[in-house]
Amino acid sequence: MPRRLDRIALSKPFVFAACLLPLAWITWLAVQGGLGPDPVARLEHETGLWALRLLLATLAAAPLRRLTGWHGLIRYRRMLGLFAFFYASVHLAIYLVIDLGGFWSQILAEIAKRPFITVGFLAWLLMIPLAATSTRAMMRRLGRHWQQLHRLVYPLAVLAVLHFLWQVKYGETIAVREPVIYAAVLAVLLAARVPGWLRQAGVRGSGAQQQ
Amino acid sequence: RPLTIAQRGAYATDETQTRLHDATHYNNYYEFGTGKDDPAKRSGRFKPEPWSVDIAGHAEVTGRVTLEDLLKPHPLQERIYRMRCVEAWSMVIPWVGIPLGDVLKRFRPTAQAKYVAFTTVERPAEMPGLSYPVLRWPYREGLRIDEAMHPLTLLVVGLYGRTLPNQNGAPLRLVVPWKYGFKGIKSIVRIDFTESEPTTSWNLSAGDEYGFYANVNPDVSHPRWSQATERRIAGDGFNLLGNRVATLPFNGYAEHVASLYAGMDLRAHY
């Protein structure tokens, strides 16, 4: 009997390619000179937005699995998370290398003194251990600590959204609402986990030593 | 419409100029929306003609003046100024206008006229951004009288040799090159000579971020970002690297205007 076709494994290269499309598009715009009057700001904005979108997509995998009953969904999660880290790294690199270009003495002061840059940088820092332990081997090695470690995704997502909220200029949140929408999506994704957390806490609280 | 320029070269910088398209498609004019491209996209319905300005307050001559009468006695000048936005980007723009002081003198301000307050037109039917309470409308700005009378302060009717497009503040705006761009109030309908410091829209909305003086100052940070450097939007858009330049005190006009603030603590009066 031939094994059943693993559609998810087959689809992964396509998802991988799709995750690279925003980068291709942004690069194409840059080469064309099509990034508008302030190209550096546009580069930062687009790469930051894609980092945040992919991060939220990562967080959406588990609740969507529960909602749809489609368990395969979870198998895309690692790739989405790694791409979120990838876009966040490109975002940071553009800021450091291109935007601050020639004024690198400012870097430390910028990161330390600007709250929105501090939280953004912190969010990126917190992604490093998650990306580094994303392999199957690391999962096995860390055992139950792996899951504990990867709960860092919740605070870092909050920091990423704060980074966006604090960066936009005064008044923009009223008229454009874009960062508010991202904050709301994150709130929904976190709220979806609350019942699960409560249940876990309840189990632990009852003193039952299951497992 | 092309404008007839009588005088060029005064206070002109020879730095690389911003492209006309960039100067007219990357604007902050919240009455048309908070996005940088909103003013160009959403100002088509705005009618800058006919136009008149109300002159009020402590002056011997007050009342409504048509734009034509306001401008008639003054030959137009071109001034190529750096423009530094509080958001830490900058442009180099050839403005067309007349020194504000020359115009104000005609109304013979009295000794009580310590400040000049300006108001932007408020037309919800033509300005879609007004439906959002982003700022306290109408937009208000102000200058101390000596700042208003300074020869660098320009009442602007055009850029790049042509009349102002709607998105740049048609038909009449202010340009104060040593201050952050938000002091350059657009589409002015009222000029008021006042005795006390006028309230300004940005100061009302976020007083800790936007002061009354708003002189360009690399040493005083905006609460959320540094003002030490700026991204220069000039020339063709392909130079991604090397756009960042150091910000100069008073936007490089210190030799002309620093004396206006002698003895003042510029950290307190930001």
UniProtKB/TrEMBL annotation, chain A:
GO molecular-function terms, A-Z: electron transfer activity; FMN binding; heme binding; metal ion binding; oxidoreductase activity, acting on diphenols and related substances as donors
Domain called Ferric oxidoreductase: residue spans: 47-161
Keywords, ordered alphabetically: Cell membrane, Electron transport, Flavoprotein, FMN, Heme, Iron, Membrane, Metal-binding, Transmembrane, Transmembrane helix, Transport
Transmembrane segments: 12-30, 50-68, 80-104, 116-132, 152-168, 180-198
Cofactor: FMN; heme b
Compartment(s) where it occurs, according to its Swiss-Prot or TrEMBL record: Cell membrane; Membrane
One matching Pfam family: Ferric_reduct
Membrane topology: Multi-pass membrane protein
UniProt xrefs under InterPro entries: Fe3_Rdtase_TM_dom, MsrQ-like
Cofactor note: Binds 1 FMN per subunit. Binds 1 heme b (iron(II)-protoporphyrin IX) group per subunit.
Keyword S-adenosyl-L-methionine recorded: no
Similarity remark: Belongs to the MsrQ family.
Role according to the record: Part of the MsrPQ system that repairs oxidized periplasmic proteins containing methionine sulfoxide residues (Met-O), using respiratory chain electrons. Thus protects these proteins from oxidative-stress damage caused by reactive species of oxygen and chlorine generated by the host defense mechanisms. MsrPQ is essential for the maintenance of envelope integrity under bleach stress, rescuing a wide series of structurally unrelated periplasmic proteins from methionine oxidation.
Record-given protein name: Protein-methionine-sulfoxide reductase heme-binding subunit MsrQ
Biological source species: Dokdonella koreensis DS-123
Gene name for this UniProt entry: msrQ
